[in-house]
Amino acid sequence: MEKSPKGRNIDVVIFGAGIAGLWTFHALKKRGYDVLLLERDEIGCGQTLASQGIIHSGLKFSLAGKVSSLAKTISAMPDRWREALDGKGNVDLSQAQVNAQSQHLMIPPGFFGGLTKIVTQKALGESVRSVPQKEWSADVQSTGFKGSVIFMNEPVLDVPSVLRALATPYMDCIKKIGHEEADAPFDFLKKQNITAKQIIFTSAKSNHNIAQYADEANGLETQHRPLLQGMLRGAPFDLFAHLVGKTDKPVASITTHKTENGERVWYLGGGVAERAKDANPDDVYRNALAAFKSYLPQIDFSDAVWATLPIDRVEGKSNTDGWMPDTPTIHHGENALYCWPTKLTFAPLLYDMIQVDLDKKGISPSCTSSDFSDLPQAAFAKPPWDKCDWVKL
Ligand SMILES: Cc1cc2nc3c(=O)[nH]c(=O)nc-3n(C[C@H](O)[C@H](O)[C@H](O)COP(=O)(O)OP(=O)(O)OC[C@H]3O[C@@H](n4cnc5c(N)ncnc54)[C@H](O)[C@@H]3O)c2cc1C
C-alpha cells in the first residue's frame, strides 16, 4: 500500500513559478511565512521568460493617450524594482542583472513628436526628456536615423537572472508537479496531505480552468492576446528602443539579450509581433526589415538569422475596449486567490495586494519552514533565444 506523506499544515501554497508566483513566494518567505511553490513545467517557462524585461513607467501608455490611471499606477514601479535591485525591497534582487538603465523612443520627423513630448512631460515629469542629436550614442548615430530621440527612465532587466535571484535562496521549497496533478491541484494537496491557510494561483492561462474546476469561476473573466514575437541573432549593437509609428503601438519595441554562447539578439515586440500565433513567421521578418529600413537605414542585416516565438499574453479582462487592466487582478475563491499581474512590472503591486488580503484574514507568518524534500525539484527554463530554431532569410 502506498504510504501517505506526513501531514503538513503550512501558511501558503502557490501554483505557478512565473514572476507573479516567484515574487510573492520570495516576499512571503522573507517575512517568515511557511510557503510551498509548485510549478507544472519549468521556472519562468511561460510569459515571464518571453517578456522583454521592460519595467514600464507608463510612457508607452501616455503615447496611446492612456495617461490616466494606468500611467499613474505604473509610474511608481521602476522605483520599487530599483529598491529590490539594491537589496532593500520586500524581495532581494541584488543578484539580478540589469540589461539597460533606460530606453529610448525613436520618433520619425513629422510623427506627432511635439504632442508626445507635451503628454509625457505632463504625466511623467523628469523621467522623460528629449535627447539632442549631438548627444546620441555613436551606435544610434551610425543607424542613419532621422527624427527625435526621447530618453525614458525605464530599466530593462535580464529576466533569467531575476528569476534566479528570487528562487535560489529558497529552492528547497520550489517543487515540480506533473501535468495531471497541476490540472487537479486541490486533489494533489489532499493526496500529499498538505493543508494551507491560503492557496494562491499564479498559473496564468490555467487559472481560469482551475477556478472552473473548483466551481469558483463565477464572475471571472480573462483575456488572451496572441503574439508572435521576433528574434534576430547577430544584431549590430545593444539597442533598447521603441520605434514610434502613427498608431498607439510602437512599430517595433527592441530589447537586446545574450544567448548562452554570448551572441547578441534583438528581441522584437510591438507592432511587428501583434499577429496571430500561427501567422507566417515570414510576416514578422518582413515587417521588421521594413521598419529597420525606414528607421535604421544604414544598418546591414544581411548576415542576421531569425526566429519567432508564439505566445499568449494572459490577464484579467479589461473593461476598457480590450486595453489591458490598470492594475493586477485578483479573483477571490473560497480559500483561493486567482492572480494575474497584467505586466511583469506589476509583480510588486500584485504582492502588495496579496499581502493586504492575508493581513485581512489574519494569516501571519508562522516563522517555520516545512520539509518538502519528498517532492521533486523544479528546474529553471531557458529563455526563448536559447531554445528556438534559427533561420537564415
Ligand atoms: C511577449 C511578451 C512580452 C512581454 N513584455 C513585457 C515587458 O517587457 N514588461 C512587462 O512589464 N510585462 C511584459 N509582458 C507581460 C508579462 O510577461 C506577464 O504579465 C507576466 O510575465 C505574467 O506573469 P505570470 O507569473 O502571471 O505568468 P507566467 O509567466 O505565464 O507564469 C505562469 C506559470 O504557471 C505555470 N503553471 C501553469 N499552470 C499551472 C498549474 N496548474 N500548476 C502549477 N503551475 C502552473 C506555468 O508553467 C508558468 O510557469 C510581456 C508578455 C509577453 C507575452
- CATH C-level of the domain at 9-53 and 158-221 and 317-393: Alpha Beta
Distance between the termini: 59 Å
List the helices and strands in order: EHEHHHHEEHEHEEHEHHEHEEEEHEEEHE
The kinds of small molecule bound in this structure are: flavin-adenine dinucleotide
Largest sheet: 9 strands, mixed
Number of helices: 13
Helix content: 25-40%
CATH-derived topology of the domain at 9-53 and 158-221 and 317-393: FAD/NAD(P)-binding domain
- The radius of gyration over CA amounts to 22 Å
Estimate the strand proportion: 15-25%
CATH homologous superfamily annotation of the domain at 9-53 and 158-221 and 317-393: FAD/NAD(P)-binding domain
Rounded mean pLDDT is 90
**Could you give the count of β-strands?**
17
Going across the major beta sheet, what is the strand order?
5-6-4-11-12-13-10-14-17
Form type:
elongated
From the helix content, strand content and strand pairing, which structural class follows?
alpha/beta
Account of the 3D structure:
A hairpin with a 3-residue loop joins strand 15 (329-332) and strand 16 (336-340). The mean pLDDT is 90. Strands 5-6-4-11-12-13-10-14-17 form a nine-stranded mixed β-sheet, sandwiched between helices. Strands 8-2-1-9-16-15 form a six-stranded mixed β-sheet, sandwiched between helices. The protein has a domain at 9-53 and 158-221 and 317-393: FAD/NAD(P)-binding domain (3-Layer(bba) Sandwich), CATH 3.50.50.60. The longest helix has 15 residues, at 281-295. Helix 1 (19-31) packs across helix 13 (347-360). The chain has 393 residues and is of the alpha/beta class. The chain has helices spanning 19-31, 47-50, 59-63, 69-74, 77-85, 113-124, 138-142, 159-167, 179-183, 185-191, 205-213, 281-295, 347-360, and strands at residues 8-15, 35-39, 98-100, 103-107, 128-131, 148-152, 156-157, 174-176, 194-201, 222-233, 241-243, 252-258, 264-269, 305-316, 329-332, 336-340, 391-392. The protein binds flavin-adenine dinucleotide. Residues 15-21, 38-41, 45-48, 50-54, 56, 182, 185, 202-204, 206, 210, 227, 229, 269, 311, 313, 340-345 line the site of flavin-adenine dinucleotide.
